[in-house]
Each structure stands twice: as C-alpha cells, then as structure tokens.
Amino acid sequence: MKSSRLVLLLMFVGVAGCGPTSDFSDLQAHMDEVRARPKGAIEPLPKFQPYESFTYSAAALRSPFQPPIKIDMANRQKGSQDVKPDDARVKQFLEGFNIEVFEMVGTLANEEAVYALVSGAGGVHRVKVGDYLGRNHGRILAIDESKVDVVEIVPDGEGGWLERPRSLSLKERS
Predict the structure, then answer these.
(1) Where does the secretion signal sit in this chain (predicted)?
(2) CA–CA separation, 113 and 23 (whole Å)
(3) β-pairing verdict for 132-133 and 123-127
(4) d(Cα 101, Cα 122) in Å, to the nearest integer?
(5) Is the pLDDT of residue 148 over 80?
(6) Any residues with CB less than 8 A from the CB of 142 and at least 6 apart, and which?
(7) What secondary structure does DSSP assign to 51-73, as a single string?
(8) pLDDT score recorded for residue 127
(9) Helix (H, G, I), strand (E, B) or coil at 41
(10) 104-142 b/e with 16+ CB inside 10 Å = b?
(11) What pLDDT sits at residue 130?
(12) Rounded to an integer, what distance in angstroms lies between the CA atom of residue 99 and that of residue 107?
C-alpha cells in the first residue's frame, strides 16, 4: 500500500511539473532579436589566395656547410693554341652523346685490332683506337681489357683549348 501511494505521489508531482508557465521572456527576447536582423545579409566568403609553391633554386650552389674552394688563377692550367679540334672532319655517331652515358662492357680482338664494347646511346657499340666518342671531341687513345683511355679537347675559357684525359672503366656484372 505504501508503494502505491508513493507511485501516486510521484505521478502527481510529475503532472504538476508539466503545467503551463508563462515565463518565456528570455526566449521571446531572443526571437525578437533574430527577427530584427536584416534579411539576406550573408557574409561573403573569404578571398581565396592560391598557393604559391616554393622552388629551391640553390641546389646547384655550394653547400653553406662546406668551406669555399679557392682557385689559384695564376697556377691554373692554360690552354694552348696548338691544341684545337678538327672542325673539318666528319662527326661520328657516338659524338652526338655525352661521354658520361657510355660505359665499357667488354672487349673483342682479332688479328687486325682490339675493339672495346661500350654501352650507351641506345645500344652496345664497337669502337677502336682512333674513333671519337662524346661531345667534347674525345678520341680513343688506348684500349685494354679493363679500360678505354680517351682524350677530350675542351675550351679553357680564354680562347684556347685543353686536352683532358678520361677513362671508361670496365663495368663488372651487376
């Protein structure tokens, strides 16, 4: 019996709490403020600024963490007027490519000559002593089983020409 009275009392309190109250003054003030705002006044979107990418342009310069290299201009090798490329001769096919693209992959020999096999420029090419290789007038001087010796003729920057020796070493299997 006590429990039924308790339930009845709780129901009465719950129903009494749902009664009409006329104190909506704060809600009414907010609604009046919203209604008083001008209609159609939407803030414009912020201006879009396109992203400007950063290009690092100092990649080819000296690292700031390494000391500068001093070039002794007085002792620098000077070019010679006696050394110069032969512009009258017909260019060979392998002179149209940089010498850095070539690597020696083997040798061939017969009774007449020793040939080197160089890979690059789209294939493997057979060259002999006296052939030209690379864009800097590189002439093959010697071929042995482990390397090809080449001498290039390059400008010295002051109107003369220098002979620069280079070697293509045999590429081992990889």
Answers:
(1) 1-18
(2) 114
(3) unpaired
(4) 10
(5) yes
(6) 129, 148, 149
(7) --------TTSPPTTSPPPPP-S
(8) 94
(9) coil
(10) bbebeeeeeeebbbbbbeeeebebeeebbbbbbbbbbee
(11) 93
(12) 18
Strand partners, 149: 142, 167
Which of 143, 164, 167 has the alpha carbon at shortest distance from 152?
164
Q: Which two tokens stand for residue 173?
A: 């299997």
Mean pLDDT of 68-97: 76
State the pTM of this model: 0.54
pLDDT band at 58 (very low <50, low <70, confident <90, very high): confident
pLDDT band at 14 (very low <50, low <70, confident <90, very high): low
- Helix ranges (H only) for the chain are 2-17, 25-36
- Report the C-alpha gap between 90 and 35 in whole angstroms: 91
Mean pLDDT of 54-60: 80
Confidence band (pLDDT; 50, 70, 90) for 76? low
Do residues 130 and 115 make contact, with C-beta atoms less than 8 angstroms apart? no
Phi-psi region of 105 (alpha: psi -120 to 50; beta: other; left: phi over 0): alpha
